[in-house]
Specification:
Blueprint lengths: L8 H4 L24 E2 L8 E6 L4 H12 L5 E6 L2 H6 L1 H6 L5 E5 L2 H8 L7 H7 L5 H5 L11 E5 L2 E6 H7 L7 H13 L3 E4 L7 H14 L1 H8 L8 H13 L12 H9 L3 E7 L14 E4 L12 E3 L2 E6 L6 H12 L1 H10 L4 E2 L11 H12 L2 E3 L2 H4 L2 H17 L4 H15 L2
Parallel strand pairs: 2-3, 2-4, 7-8, 10-13
Antiparallel strand pairs: 1-3, 4-11, 5-11, 5-12, 6-8, 6-9
Helix pairs in contact: 2-15, 10-11, 10-12, 18-19
Length: 428
């Protein structure tokens, strides 16, 4: 993970989730949390509760299995729909949160640490720090120099495809945007929808914007734009949307009514030819078909920037400031930091990679090995649009704006003017 110190908003590269309204489902332990999953039992550290956004079947099972290996305390997992968890995290942490909660590295972690909503776990890092590279520690560190986060897994974004379909049709991974467009045109002529696409949940389109901006304008401009330091009416930003509009005819139609899971299933069923998404798309493939899944990094657009930047978000765990059992929670975080725990997770979830540098990668699938190689070769690693910018800007401005673009891709100028006006009010 080749991030660059020092620790700052610019280099931590993360945003945070929205903070609007909290449903009954996201109120923490003892307040009606839905279907708590059993975890490990025993030990003398009481009960530790975990607020989890791992609501999809595979990551949910992975977490439950890892937690069962924790014997120092009784644990209870309170699982909430992934999007609901993210959209209500602020109110959740200010209410009656669980002891430990799933969250994201870098600025998203830093955001809550600065507000006093997370526990300093620097003492935990003194024990487990040797399991991680400095880059992962940087992504777990607040502006005060203290650690608040335990990295667990991460995953790269790339363009995924089924090898058997491509071999049958004679397709080759493109190296440039022109080659990508030519490939999409050929797929369309072959009766295959070229690019799987979904944005019902609001966030997947952010990944498309990220990679197009990184390829067109480079890492530094992208991060500066996310920080509110560049204008959205800049011709460089307009070029990103013009490029995207040129690809839109090859996208799977009716994207706003489709979930990423459904788009992933269309790829698995060979109805679509390729899909820009995180490696977690593998979760939508039957186990027997996973060896048929491969990827390539999004091709070059601007030779000045090549393909040196990717999104590779880091997921992990934090302790809420209102935790009832801090001692037990810290013990659980030490368990999550163990290479053996992450080995269990990556074996069960084919779309993830272990954050620990001491994890056993010998059991990685071919896809996981390729994913780790892609990340190791990247010069710049961003986290993702809604982790790279302010939470209010990501949720109230970018989600509706990108969905508007997907619906009406010809109205670029008015869209960018609207984003810039809203940005000016937020980034004061």
């Amino acid at each position: 993970m080749n991030q660059r110190p020092p620790i700052s908003r610019r280099n931590l590269l993360l945003g945070t989730a929205a903070a609007f309204g909290v449903p009954a489902a996201l109120t923490g332990c003892g307040s009606g949390s839905p279907s708590p999953a059993p975890g490990g039992t025993g030990g003398n550290l009481g009960t530790v509760t975990i607020g989890s956004n791992a609501s999809d079947e595979i990551p949910k099972k992975s977490l439950e299995t890892v937690v069962k290996g924790f014997t120092q305390a009784t644990t209870r997992i309170n699982t909430v729909d992934h999007n609901t968890f993210q959209e209500n995290i602020n109110r959740y942490l200010r209410g009656t949160p669980d002891d430990v909660f799933t969250w994201f590295a870098g600025y998203r972690m830093q955001f809550f640490a600065e507000q006093g909503l997370a526990v300093d776990i620097s003492d935990v890092w003194q024990e487990i720090g040797g399991n991680y590279t400095q880059a992962f520690k940087d992504q777990s560190t607040g502006v005060d120099g203290k650690q608040y986060f335990i990295p667990f897994t991460y995953y790269p974004w790339a363009v995924f495809y089924r090898k058997s379909l491509w071999q049958e049709k004679g397709y080759e991974p493109p190296a440039t945007l022109d080659e990508l467009t030519a490939l999409a045109r050929k797929m369309k002529a072959d009766g295959v929808i070229p690019i799987a696409f979904a944005d019902k949940d609001g966030w997947p389109a952010m990944g498309t914007f990220d990679i197009l901006n990184l390829r067109t304008n480079g890492y530094d401009f992208h991060i500066s734009l996310m920080a509110g330091k560049e204008s959205w009416t800049d011709p460089r930003v307009k070029q990103v949307f013009e490029t995207w509009r040129g690809l839109m005819e090859y996208h799977q139609p009716a994207a706003l009514g489709r979930t990423w899971q459904e788009a992933g299933q269309s790829l698995a069923q060979k109805k679509t030819g390729m899909y820009l998404l995180g490696m977690f798309v593998a979760q939508q493939f039957p186990e027997a078909d996973r060896d048929d899944l491969d990827f390539f990094t999004f091709p070059e657009i601007n030779p000045a920037h090549g393909t040196d930047s990717i999104d590779a978000p880091i997921d992990g765990y934090m302790i809420s400031a209102k935790a009832r059992n801090v001692e037990g929670a810290k013990a659980l975080l030490k368990h999550f930091a163990q290479p053996s725990s992450q080995d269990v997770a990556t074996e069960l979830d084919p779309g993830t990679l272990a954050a620990s540098s001491k994890a056993d990668t010998s059991g990685y699938s071919a896809l996981q090995k390729r994913g780790a190689e892609l990340v190791s070769k990247a010069t710049h690693i961003a986290q993702f649009l809604d982790r790279d910018t302010r939470p209010d800007f990501a949720s109230t401005v970018m989600i509706p704006s990108l969905q508007s673009f997907v619906s009406k891709p010809d109205e670029i100028d008015s869209l960018l003017a609207s984003i810039e006006k809203q940005k000016a009010n937020i980034f004061r």
